[in-house]
Amino acid sequence: MHAVAGLIQRRLELFPITATYAPAGAPDCSAELLIGGCRVRTLAQEYGTPLYCFDAATLDAAAQAYHTALARYYPGESAVTYAGKAYLSRAIAQWTQRHDLWLDCTGAGEIGIAAAAGVPRHRILVHGVNKSAADLEMAVRHAGVIVVDNPTELHRLAPMLRASNQDISLWLRVRPGVAVDTHAYRQTGQEDSKFGMSPQEVMEAVRFCIDHGLKLSGLHFHQGSHFHDPAPIGPALETVLDLVAELASTTGWSPQSLCPGGGWGVAYHEDDLPQPDVEHYVRFVAQRVAEGCRQRGLKLPSLHLEPGRSLVARGGVAVYTVGAVKQTATRRWLFIDGGMADNPRPALYGARYSALPVIDPDRPLLGPAWIAGPYCESGDVLIEALPLPAMEADELLAVPVSGAYHLAMQSNYNGARKPAVLWLDKGAATLIQRRETLADLLARDMGIDL
Q1: Class for domain 2-48+315-442, per CATH?
Q2: Are residues 195 and 149 in contact, defined by beta-carbon separation less than 8 angstroms?
Q3: pLDDT tens figures, 439-450
Q4: 52, 95, 182, 229: which is deepest, by most CB within 10 A?
């Protein structure tokens, strides 16, 4: 029993900071998972499963950790940008403004969500490797900063900016030639990456902006997502700061803002613990920027960081209902009512997750279980070989670290309806996205007379 208790405790370290087990009370005295002061079983009964729950206290603490670390280690101005690609809804956009965060949007859809949530123009920053005309039009209409990915985009954007009376700044995205240590699909800074411009292209883009009277205020680069070692940021910063020094000497321009991206990782499985240290990451970047500028005689820019998953991933929990239990020659299968339609990360990246029963988790372990979804793909396996107790149909299973890149990449595969999403705060649950219905699926399906 001591081993089981230790395993439960380690897995709880992956869950939101408010997660705990408490007695359910008479007549059922089993332990029951609570998040944000809310009983998860009660939430599942009311809202159904799959169900996504976001814990406000965990998100609040993550945002504060970044603000505190930047204030401690960076001597100049700084800002934190939430990456909407991790998960964006109107509620999340509104949450970012309660914590003085900028909001990074990619494409007209995310810009539209930010605008509908009331995010002010000066807090909306727009990314994108191949922005369409509609994307650029939305950016000009609603954003304060547009990060330019390539020369073609810059030339398309210039006349739109000249025709607009909006106060919009441009940042140029640099391709530093160095990626961080992460899955190849999440690397963005390497020499042959599809993202950003070479230093030479950036030099030419700066001259173009000066010649055409465009408001150019910053440089941006990004090396990859979900990394745990900040060391590769060092060489990339050296490359970019050398570029800044050269730009200052040849054009007289230097960035008011510098953004070395983000992408700091989180622990998804108990084997990944302890949680990667946000303060270690921020200190490394802040001190390198400050020292690099001092060595080159450069004025300190405003330092912007773009944490996405490390702000929101741990705050989210996915709750599923076990359907069938199947034993094959070598595996115990637990089939749940969600999977790759609401969380494609295991299929895309081989991402490794953990889980706990919502009720009575301290039962003796039966052995490893393979947790799979209902979809017609052999790759629809959410978790492999996870030690769990015996579980039966209709039990609830909670998967932590589900706040980032699940709902943002969900699909309607096999006609799946997107799950309900709850905001949990001090014992109150608020529905922030309702469950998708069959009528929603059919609303844009026009049919044809045959």
Answers
A1: mainly beta
A2: yes
A3: 999 999 998 987
A4: 52
